[in-house]
Amino acid sequence: MTQYRHRTPQFESIVEHAMFIFTLFLCCFWEIVHRILQTISPVYKDLSSDVILITGAGNGIGRLMCLEFAKFCPNIVAVDKNEKSLVETSELVHKETGVQIKVYVCDLRHKKAIDELSTNILRELGKVTVLVNNAGVMNAKFIDEFTSDEIEDCFKVNVLSHFYLIQAFLPSMLNKMSENPISNNVPVKFRHPRGHIVCISSIAGLIPLAGGADYCASKAAAILLSESVELELLRLGVDNEVHVTRVLPFLLNTDMFRGVTPKHPLLFPIVDAGYCASRIVQSVRLNERVVYVTARYRILPILKMLFPTKMIHCLYEYANTGTYVDQLKLYRKKIDGANR
Which positions, given as ranges, span the membrane (predicted)? Predict the structure, then answer.
């Protein structure tokens, strides 16, 4: 009997670990089943009553997302630093869908401007329930060519603006907290929380790109920010009401990557921006967590972890990714010369 009692804690520990492993397999199985069911018969979220804010909406996939979201929601808020581009987006959306979107000019490099933006939007619209952090900057320079202002501006737009906008609009997604705190570290309950945070990051946030140190580092930071926010929502017990989606595109036929011609398009294809925008909207309607716009990119982080660094470098050289920034710089130089 004494020997049995002595082994009881160890036995309980084994049972606890076994139950945990079983739970992991069960979660994995359910995720597979859920994806199969969503593929066969997708259940889409109704966005008609949401307020959707999209940054970087003056051009590129930001403009295209305004067009796509307007098919499902009449309450679109477009944000960009270029007023002329915003007006063009607004006119295009109204012409194509009949929806009159609201436009706000804001330079996301400045926190004061973001604070004013959020104050005005909340005062006029009351809430934002879908936040799409899309605005991005890529300098296309090598490490010895950056100025300090260029590095800081890249991080201000690509990362810090995500922080400030989430801080500004997450409370309206969570709605009001209960006034009665719950003891024993149990998360407080919220009244009817509803929201969605979309982080438009990049494959470059998972794998490096020569000449893209600022861009890659900032996109990696944005990915981990969104993952951390997702865990905080899980801790609060509202992860099924307020969702987080990370979108990982790479080469798109937008101004950011205009001029890049991949050596092996099968490995690194240039993806149509319209398809990317449509895929992002679909991911929001399906509450997807991670979206690889090009499915084959899913294997890249796995290869990076499993194979020796030298082998990964050989892959980069084979794909000729080291010339992408050179191609961008040459193209932008031609454009600048033509505009003078």
Answer: 14-33
